């Protein structure tokens, strides 16, 4: 059976060229990069090369790039690191209602420690209004954290504008760029960010490695205590194969990003149009224009997202849903709730996230299979039958 992977926002396949670049660091160049002998120094050289590539890619300098275990650690480290270091200045943090759990749960944790957090709303497209961020600032605000692009609905936030507000007030600004790093051009200077998170496995690199950009002079406490790796900002022996793989993934992104943006945008728009044309009552979630080139998120009323997902899976198509009947909470996605979707629309949501390996035939196949599945499920839905009468 044909197998079509349209869940690249959850994770991407590791590029074969990345795997090849990682292999020597398991069995040949296995030294500890903190060791002074040749085994260690060769490994250290590989790390510094990856650091140079990652820094260049976002307009940063090498000393500003710290390797971590992934997006979750980068987000935790940025937010807790600033919160603890600047507690003397204030205890207020501003973030949005549609952040990834790695940001939201970190903020919830800090609230239990006595910090105050404002969760600014978003509009129907998922956009944060910079004016809302400005209004939320108090004399005690020490950090603003707003994601670059949302992982569920693909909306790209006005980061540069929010950053300039933060800069003006002398407040640190962090952005979770896990969905954009390697997919859209990023310049930390233009975006006015002090801290930026990225993750290897979202850009065709390996899982378990990420980056935290920390602008020079930013005061924060380390998240991991131990050795003095990463200039004391992140203890633990380096994940050398992972970091080498991250560097290679960024190098490939640099070469292929512009072409991929064009190609994915075409395929994305074809899939959106096809779904809206072929499926009655279907609607697009997220912003029609300010959205990730690979993100399609739709609500299909009168069907359950899980049923759609499992039926698509039986046809070899992998995607995801903001419905949550299989998770412990039963609450649909906080992102879909924040853009004002009813429970019903949220439960009927599907996210297709396209990637480097997605072809036009894949999109055609989805458009061939999905309407039939929707028809079949709706025929069993009492709600739909009532509506049809
Ligand atoms: C995947 C993701 C994360 C978490 O990254 P990990 O490397 O899996 O820990 C954080 N933020 C966003 C927006 C993501 O999509």
Task: List low-confidence stretches.
Answer: none
Q: How many angstroms separate the termini?
A: 38 Å
Bound small molecules, which ones? pyridoxal-5'-phosphate
The domain count comes to 2
Per CATH, which architecture of the largest domain?
3-Layer(aba) Sandwich
Mean pLDDT: 96
| CATH topology tier name of the largest domain | Aspartate Aminotransferase, domain 2
CATH level 4 superfamily of the largest domain: Type I PLP-dependent aspartate aminotransferase-like (Major domain)
- Helix-strand pattern: EHHHEHEHEHEHEHEEHEEHEHHEHH
How would you characterize this protein structure?
The chain is globular. Strand 5 (about 140-145), helix 7 and strand 6 (about 170-175) form a beta-alpha-beta unit. The chain is an alpha/beta fold and about 400 residues long. Helix 6 packs parallel to helix 7 (about 160-170). It has helices at about 15-20, 25, 40-55, 70-85, 100-110, 130-135, 160-170, 190, 240-280, 305-315, 335-340, 345, 360-380, 380-389; strands at about 5, 65-70, 90-95, 115-120, 140-145, 170-175, 195-200, 210-215, 285, 295-300, 315-320, 350-355. The chain binds pyridoxal-5'-phosphate (PLP).
Task: Give a brief rundown of this model.
By secondary structure, the protein is an alpha/beta fold. The protein folds into 2 domains: 4-11 and 257-388, Aspartate Aminotransferase, domain 1; 16-252, 3-Layer(aba) Sandwich (Aspartate Aminotransferase, domain 2), CATH 3.40.640.10. 43% of the residues lie in helices and 13% in strands.
């Amino acid at each position: 059976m044909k197998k079509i992977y349209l869940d690249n926002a959850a994770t991407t396949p590791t590029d074969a060229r990345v795997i090849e670049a990682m292999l020597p660091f398991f069995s040949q160049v296995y030294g500890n990069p903190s060791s002074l002998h040749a085994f260690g120094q060769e490994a250290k050289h590989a790390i510094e090369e990856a650091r140079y590539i990652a820094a260049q890619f976002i307009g940063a300098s090498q000393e500003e790039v710290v390797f971590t275990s992934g997006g979750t650690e980068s987000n935790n480290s940025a937010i807790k690191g600033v919160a603890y270091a600047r507690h003397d200045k204030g205890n207020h943090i501003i973030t949005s209602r549609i952040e990834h759990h790695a940001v939201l749960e970190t903020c919830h944790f800090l609230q239990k420690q006595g910090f105050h957090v404002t969760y600014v709303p978003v509009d129907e497209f998922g956009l944060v209004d910079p004016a809302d961020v400005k209004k939320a600032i108090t004399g005690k605000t020490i950090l603003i954290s707003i994601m670059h692009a949302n992982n569920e609905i693909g909306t790209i936030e006005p980061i540069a504008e929010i950053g300039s507000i933060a800069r003006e007030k002398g407040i640190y600004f962090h952005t979770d760029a896990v969905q954009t790093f390697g997919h859209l051009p990023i310049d930390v200077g233009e975006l006015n960010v002090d801290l930026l998170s990225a993750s290897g496995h979202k850009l065709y690199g390996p899982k378990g490695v990420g980056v935290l950009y920390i602008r020079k002079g930013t005061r924060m406490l380390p998240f991991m205590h131990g050795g003095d790796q990463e200039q004391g900002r992140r203890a633990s022996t380096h994940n050398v194969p992972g970091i080498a793989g991250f560097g290679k993934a960024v190098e490939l992104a640099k070469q292929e990003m512009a072409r991929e943006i064009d190609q994915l945008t075409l395929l994305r728009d074809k899939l959106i149009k096809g779904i809206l044309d072929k499926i009655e009552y279907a609607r697009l979630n997220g912003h029609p224009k300010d959205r990730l080139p690979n993100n399609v998120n739709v609500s299909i009323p009168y069907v359950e997202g899980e049923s759609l997902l499992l039926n698509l899976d039986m046809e070899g198509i992998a995607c995801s849903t903001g419905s949550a009947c299989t998770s412990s909470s039963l609450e649909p996605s906080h992102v879909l709730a924040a853009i004002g979707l009813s429970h019903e629309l949220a439960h009927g949501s599907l996210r297709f996230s396209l990637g480097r390996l997605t072809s036009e035939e894949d999109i055609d196949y989805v458009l061939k299979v999905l309407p039939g599945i929707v028809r079949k499920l709706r025929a069993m839905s009492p709600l739909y039958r009532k509506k049809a009468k």
